[in-house]
Amino acid sequence: MIEVSGLNKQFRTPVVKEGRFAGLRTLFTREYRMKEAVKDISFTIHKGDFVGYIGPNGAGKSTTIKMLTGILHPSSGEVKINGVNLHQQRRQVAKRLGVVFGQRSQLWWDLPVKDSYDILAHMYKVTTQDKEKRLDELGELLDLKEFWLTPVRKLSLGQRMRADIAASMLHDPDVLFLDEPTIGLDVTAKRSIRGFLKKLNSEYGKTILLTTHDMDDIEQLCERVMVINHGELSYEGSIENLRDRIGLPTLIRVTFNGAYQLPVPDGLGLPIEVALDADHTFRIVEANNREVHIEANRQQVKAMDILRLVSGWGEVADIHMEEPDFEDVIHRVY
Ligand SMILES: Nc1ncnc2c1ncn2[C@@H]1O[C@H](COP(=O)(O)OP(=O)(O)OP(=O)(O)O)[C@@H](O)[C@H]1O
């Protein structure tokens, strides 16, 4: 379990002067500005959770992850992993954590993948027996054997990411922090990484916090999402609730068997608001010879009520519902 309370991080950065001899003047008369990268963040992640941590560029995601893994010391606030204070007992807690930074490998560039694992196992004091056992498992799960002896610099990005995920798992941590693990990957490599992460969570019980700009990662993997913006948590909850809160409409496409009659007076164009009752409406946005497109806010009206009404317009052949695109929902939160 991860318990974060009142976490803050301020960075002190020198103010760069403008104009002639700016560099020289900056050197002699130093002025500093405080940047609040993370502001009073609190949350709890339970064992076995798979949580997405998202936000626009510069929102404070990496800074949070660095504080959660002990790389950065918070300006104030507390992080407890399985009840132990991370920043007071860093060595003890670090053994329970694994971290992958998609943009930066923790493997040795010129060494074969296997040699990096030997060094990491030594650093984490993993016994040879445990290391071999884990590498057998991970090799199978992440399909590592095909590039076992290849120097890291010669790996494709997808292979490198799989190798990095295995490296983060070598000491068998309970908790994994993944910062952009699918960045730059093609569709196939993304799919395989998502498959591995899903397995690590559902079959191996790993608790995972995932940071990504890829909303498909979030939709396909996470039960819960936390949104950070300008250093502050602006949302925490399910993807479903987030959709409802933003209130983007669901699109309902109704196909009729032959002719149908819209309840719209002649001469009125589309889109048009249709009343279900005194308080509830939906919109017809498009109508062609066999299909009608309807937009409805599912928080306000029930799809069943709309469909009951629509079935009176003609003989319904098919109904297709499209939830709002998660990417669009997220842009509204940012
Ligand atoms: N070492 C540092 N010194 C000064 N400012 C920093 C430092 N690290 C981060 N910042 C600033 O803190 C803010 C948050 O940065 P952070 O890297 O955590 O954002 P992010 O959400 O991970 O962004 P991205 O999605 O672009 O990776 C940014 O304004 C950044 O410029």
From TrEMBL:
PROSITE patterns in alphabetical order: ABC_TRANSPORTER_1, ABC_TRANSPORTER_2
GO molecular function: ATP binding
Transmembrane segments: none
Entry protein name: ATP-binding cassette domain-containing protein
Record keywords: ATP-binding, Nucleotide-binding, Transport
Segments forming domain ABC transporter: 22-255
Species classification: Bacteria, Bacillati, Bacillota, Bacilli, Bacillales
Keyword Nucleotide-binding found: yes
Alphabetical list of InterPro entries matching this protein: AAA+_ATPase, ABC_transporter-like_ATP-bd, ABC_transporter-like_CS, ABC_transporter_ATP-binding, P-loop_NTPase
